[in-house]
Amino acid sequence: MAGIYIHIPFCKTRCIYCDFYSTTRSELKKRYIHSLCHELEMRRDYLQNEPIETIYLGGGTPSQLSKEDFQQIFDTIERIFGMKQVREITLEANPDDLTPEYVQMLADLPFNRISMGIQTFNEATLHLLKRRHTASQAIAAVEHCRKAGFQNISIDLIYGLPGETAERWEYDLSQAIALNVEHISAYHLIYEEGTPIYKMLQQHRVDEVDEESSVSFFSRLIDCLTAAGYEHYEISNFCRPGYYSQHNTSYWKGIPYLGCGPSAHSFNRLEREWNVASLDDYIEGIENRKRVYETESLDMTTRYNEFIITSLRTRWGIPLTKLKEEFGTELWQYCLDMAALSLKNGKLTEKNGALCLTREGIFISDSIMSDLLKIDYD
């Protein structure tokens, strides 16, 4: 089984914290869609006839596209790869784009999952982040999706934002729970170098939250959402039973995927590819049948390390039998040896034949992962 990721780089405006590749040059949209479909055609053999199970349109802001744009993309995927075995088709969307009319249009297309970036319900912070929606628009967007028949809705939250307090984070969590959506992703703000908010931090126009507060926010996130019936199935992701993100889970389980569009990554178990992060270079390359991309061959150690990092992030953990089968006895034994201390002190546990983080281990997951990684000193 495999997945397809489609990158839609267009945004009306750019949020100050985002470091994903995006552009406001919407005049290139039609030309881009044509190139995107052409890339799908050019790379029809990349997945080696693996049946497609998930399709994910991310960005950027995919909800900037029209029905005709979406239809062109789906027609191309259907013709080249087939969609009979597709179980999940996700659209990332901005809340202010999800008007009743737009949502009904989406319901007439193959989408069966909507993921919207709400980030916070605090109006002043939304304004600071240059988000285009208001808190009331976010709430209304969920209602519009429900009325149109969508039964799988995900929302994104960000914590550790400038000026964050325990009370403000508590309010965001209570509002999110009240929406009764199937899935919630919550990420700590990262001040990525090169973003406007990073520049503001350097200029002391905003302050980074302290480590103690960050830990407290994360702890409260886990407590509130699990008490509300959500399963904590990945470090940053929570879902109602059975509603985990199938597409994102494929990344964590090492399932192959094809990524199309500027900056999109692809993975076929042995190699990783990524397209150029430039709309002009991307379009020109596709039009001239000379796709601009880079590739990386993944040796045994690199694949082992990625397996450790991605598996341990999830509630399913590192499957020990699969680890031994794919990487051999030596790396299997190395992993067990390096995990011994964390197993002893209760940061890791063995469950259903897998090494899993405990509640205490989640808070120091980066350190535990680092302990299990193999470093070659050649």
Provide a descriptive summary of the structure in words.
With 378 residues, the protein is of the alpha/beta class. It folds into two domains: 2-251, tm_1862 like domain (pyruvate-formate lyase- activating enzyme, Alpha-Beta Horseshoe), CATH 3.80.30.20; 300-372, Arc Repressor Mutant, subunit A (Orthogonal Bundle). The chain has helices at 29-42, 67-80, 100-107, 123-128, 135-147, 166-178, 196-202, 211-227, 246-252, 279-287, 300-312, 320-344, 359-362, 365-372; strands at residues 2-8, 52-59, 88-93, 113-119, 153-159, 183-188, 231-234, 237-239, 257-260, 265-267, 271-275, 293-297, 318-319, 348-351, 354-357. The strands form three sheets. The protein has a nine-stranded mixed sheet with strand order 7-8-6-5-4-3-2-1-9, with helices on both faces. Strands 10-11-12 form a three-stranded antiparallel sheet, with no helix packed on it. Strand 2, helix 2 (67-80) and strand 3 form a beta-alpha-beta unit. Helix 1 (29-42) runs parallel beside helix 2, helix 1 packs across helix 10 and helix 6 (166-178) packs parallel to helix 8. The model has no long low-confidence stretch (mean pLDDT 96).
Keywords:
378 residues; alpha/beta; pyruvate-formate lyase- activating enzyme; Arc Repressor Mutant, subunit A; 2 domains; 15 strands
